[in-house]
Amino acid sequence: MLRNIASADSRAALEHYTAGLKLDLTPPTDDRPFFFNQLPLYDPVQVYKIARTLGAGIGGVIKGNLLATATLFVLLFVSLLLVVATIVVPLSSAIRDVGRKLAIGGTAYFFLIGVGFMMIEIGLLQRMSVFLGHPIYSLSVVLFTVILSTGVGSLISDRLPVDRLRIFVLWAVATSGYVLAMTFWLSGVLLAFDSESLFVRAAICVITMAPAGLLLGVGFPTGMRLISAVDRKPTPWFWGINGGAGVLASISAVATSLALGINVTLWIGALCYLLLVPTAATIGFRPITK
């Protein structure tokens, strides 16, 4: 196996020699740059079989991979318990007597934007980390761009509210479409500027991500307007659901990228924003009365 890998003279040959192995030795790509991970997380049954051998003296990289993966799932479980204990239970009274339609539609809406936003943000953090060369640069540039652009998007939504179903559909489709399109053209753009200085590469990150941030920033304030037009009382619940979903999605996004690739993480985020259309239609579009 090692001889075949060492003698491979193309990516196709590497993929051929590493396909079907018990360990994930496939060549890393920009979509799955996690060269340190040898667990085939896309095959849970095989991971379980490998985990069973841990007591037989297996060590090295595989042991570290197993411990890291177990830590990730423990974090997800603990976070889920904390979300239920500190958000779901204390705030559940806020949706009493507000109507089933509003409670279900509003909960789905804010859960979707919580999951979708974090899937997109974590995916971009991982993708730009490869391009910029170090995670600390990715954290600085991506978080700066996302926070600033989403804030501007929220401000724009206040001046130009998405208060009609037709406008809402256009916004949701544009948001989902832009994020989805990024998975096809972003790699080419980043490859073209890969040898440029850090300043230029950071500027490319800002330019490519800012439109997505502007669109993403519209989702939360628009949802709050939809809810407030019907009933203001359950808004604490929806704030909590959005925050809880974001916490859980941030961990899930890491696991998704490891197992299936960064593009799949971004696709899930794009799908969440597309699914906002039926949930918003469930809530309804009504003028806000002051």
Short description:
The protein has one domain: Growth Hormone, Chain: A, CATH 1.20.1250. The chain is built from twelve helices and no strands. It has helices spanning 2-7, 11-18, 44-52, 60-91, 100-132, 135-159, 165-192, 198-216, 219-230, 235-260, 262-274, 276-283.
Regions with little confidence, pLDDT below 50 for 5+ residues: none
**Over the alpha carbons, how many angstroms does the gyration radius reach?**
22 Å
Determine the strand fraction and express it as a percent band: under 5%
Helix and strand sequence: HHHHHHHHHHHH
Domain module tally: 1
Instruction: Give helix % range.
Output: over 70%
Query: How many β-strand stretches?
Result: 0
CATH architecture: Up-down Bundle
Let me know the largest β-sheet.
none
Number of helices: 12
Shape: globular
| CATH hierarchy class name | Mainly Alpha
Termini gap: 71 Å
Assembly state: single chain
Task: Find the structural class using helix and strand composition.
Answer: mainly alpha
At the fold tier of CATH, the topology name is Growth Hormone, Chain: A
Average pLDDT for all residues: 89
Descriptive account of the structure:
By secondary structure, the protein is mainly α. The protein has one domain (63-283): Growth Hormone, Chain: A, CATH 1.20.1250. The chain is built from twelve helices and no strands. The chain has helices spanning 2-7, 11-18, 44-52, 60-91, 100-132, 135-159, 165-192, 198-216, 219-230, 235-260, 262-274, 276-283. Helix 5 runs antiparallel to helix 8 (198-216). The longest helix is centred in the middle third of the chain and has 33 residues, at 100-132. The chain is globular and about 70 Å long. It starts with a helix and ends in a 7-residue tail after the last helix.
